[in-house]
Amino acid sequence: MFRTLCCTIAVVTFFQIAAVPAGDLSEKEFRRLHAELQPTKDALWRTVPWKTSVLDAQQMAAAEQKPLFIWAMDGHPLGCT
């Protein structure tokens, strides 16, 4: 259900974006939309001490006796693969 909902939202969003001719978006409107779509500074995922090195993350998890969470994926990050 969730995957279907996400794919449906992505398709609807794609068609909404595709329906706007490229020349109709002014620089001012683009900057407003870009600023509006940025995550807030207090978003919860920003408080997680993310690591890009598995070895660094493993050492930190072992030192703090916490589990290690690895998020790995294959395919295009915007696609439903």
Task: Tell me what the structure shows.
By secondary structure, the chain is mainly α. The chain has a domain at 45-71. It is 47% helix and 0% strand. It has 3 helices and no strands. The chain has helices at residues 2-18, 27-36, 54-64. The radius of gyration is 19 Å and the shape is elongated. Mean pLDDT is 77; it is low at 4-12.
Write the SSE topology.
Elements: H1 2-18, H2 27-36, H3 54-64
Key terms for this structure?
81 residues, mainly alpha, 0% strand, elongated
- Unreliable spans are 4-12
Number of helices: 3
Could you say which structural class the secondary elements and strand pairing correspond to?
mainly alpha
Shape: elongated
Distance between the termini: 15 Å
The number of E-state strands comes to: 0
Q: Taking Cα atoms only, what radius of gyration do you get, to the nearest Å?
A: 19 Å
H-E order: HHH
Mean pLDDT metric: 77
| Fraction of helical residues | 40-55%
Report strand %.
Answer: under 5%
Q: Quick gist of this model?
A:
With 81 residues, the chain is an all-alpha fold. Helices cover 47% and strands 0% of the residues. The chain contains three helices and no strands.
